[in-house]
Amino acid sequence: MTRFRLAAVLAASLAGFATAQPPADAISEARQRQLLADQKAAAEVQTALLDADAARANPAKAAQRLRAAQQSIDLSAAISAETRQRLTAQLQARLAAVEGRPVANTGARPDPAAPGVKGAQKAAIEAMQAEVKEVREGVEKIVRLRDQNNTAEADRTAAALAQKYPTNPGVLALGQRDSFATALADSRAFTELQAKRLNMAQNNLMASNIPAVQDVEFPKDWKDRTGKRSNEVKLTDREKQLISALDRAVTVNLKDQPLEYALQELSTAMDAKLLVDEKSLRDLDLDLKKNVSLSARGLSGRTALRQLLSAQGLTFVIRDQEIQIVTVERSRDLLTTRVYYLGDLIQGLGPTGGAPQWGPFLDFQQTQANAKLLIDSIKSSVDPLAWQGNGGAGTVTFHVPSMSLIVRASSEVHAALGGRLYGR
User: Fold this and answer.
1) Is residue 264 part of a domain?
2) Is 247 a domain residue?
3) Nearest 5°: phi and psi at 394?
4) How far is 323 from 376, CA to CA, in rounded Å?
5) Residues contacting residue 103 through CB under 8 Å, at least 6 positions apart
6) Is the pTM of this model over 0.85?
7) CA 372, 375, 379, 383: dihedral to nearest 10 degrees?
8) Dihedrals φ, ψ of 231, to 5°?
9) Which first-to-last residue range defines the signal peptide (predicted)?
10) Strands 249-258 and 291-300: what pairing?
């Protein structure tokens, strides 16, 4: 009996403890359920958008899939109002695109104060124009009165202008010089300039509000201005003869012959003198009696000479209207740096032709790739042995801000490069 009573008391105490536990937070559970419902609805809408993209060849089917997703959103009571509004906007925008309907812009609203601001700006411009006109007419009147020796009336007119427009620079100029005639001339010139600039600013503002007819509009004198720009290297008649000699095809076959003899053979084949810098030979401790070999069949004299000299640490430049043979290190001091604009050749080309379509990052990558392709082409086709890495001292660098190539090379290389780039 005692044992039964003890068990009954224990059961009652446990039951009392269970009923004393606080209930679960119903608000947190509801929020959790709503969050899960929002996530599920967003996933369903994304699936519907993907299905519509897949069925874009069949607009009716795509529209049907989007409407079904919209109906599901409308009938769902578990999602939040913010999620319902956001998902509905996505579905309606895609549905409008599929059906070819315009979509109302729910974003930025017009500034209600904009008309007032524009009206104030217009009034300020009109007041400025009226002030410029009145001051200019007043100054012209003073000039006429001074020419008629009516000084008193001219002084009264100047005083009236100073009282009405005390901060106008044209009016202030009337009293800044000891000579009234000089001050009057300065004031007259300033008011004319002020009126001219104001009209130009007004015309530019009006022109900027007119839509462009084409993608790009150039100034009327654009052709004349660009025609004055030239990257052509100015060469003397003698330098042109030397370049022609270097471009002449030669055939030379030498084996174990003195360097001096090989240079003489090339000089004869090109019909051009070759001047050897004695200091360059001393710097390299090079003897012209050293045996060399050269096999050139139908090569240009330029290539054959580069091939012969590069093996000895030498190169050539056209200087003082002669072909001079110097060390590669010394030739760096004799090179010329020129800039070649290439923006119209490397921008907006290729599969990513334009930042508006593909984004600025891909467009920049394509521009860089085009520039590298052009540089490699220059180094392989314009006197290849004249560039660094091939035994020469010339360099080509792409300057991104100006979209230009910065080329450091000899004058004959610049002449050849200008012909390749600009068709000269």
Assistant:
1) yes
2) yes
3) -70, 150
4) 27
5) 92, 93, 96, 97
6) no
7) 170
8) -105, 10
9) 1-20
10) antiparallel
Q: Which of 200, 198, 191, 194 is nearest to 135 (CA)?
A: 191
Q: Which residue do the tokens 């607009």 mark? A: 59
- The position carrying tokens 């590669």 is 328
Helix 81-99 and helix 59-75, axial crossing angle in degrees, nearest 10: 160
Tell me whether residue 372 is in a domain: yes
Residue 314 · residue 262 · CB < 8 Å: no
CA–CA distance, 29 with 7 (Å, rounded to integer): 37
Domain that holds residue 341: 336-422
| pLDDT, tens digit, 9 for 90 and up, residues 194-205 | 777 777 777 766
* Gap between the Cα atoms of 293 and 308, Å rounded: 8
> Token pair of 339, please?
């800039």
Tell the residue number behind the tokens 């044209």, with chain if given.
170
Place of tokens 């009327």: 220
Q: 407 by DSSP, 3-state: which?
A: strand
- Kindly report, residue by residue over 363-404, the tens digit of the pLDDT: 777 888 888 998 998 888 888 888 888 878 889 998 887 788
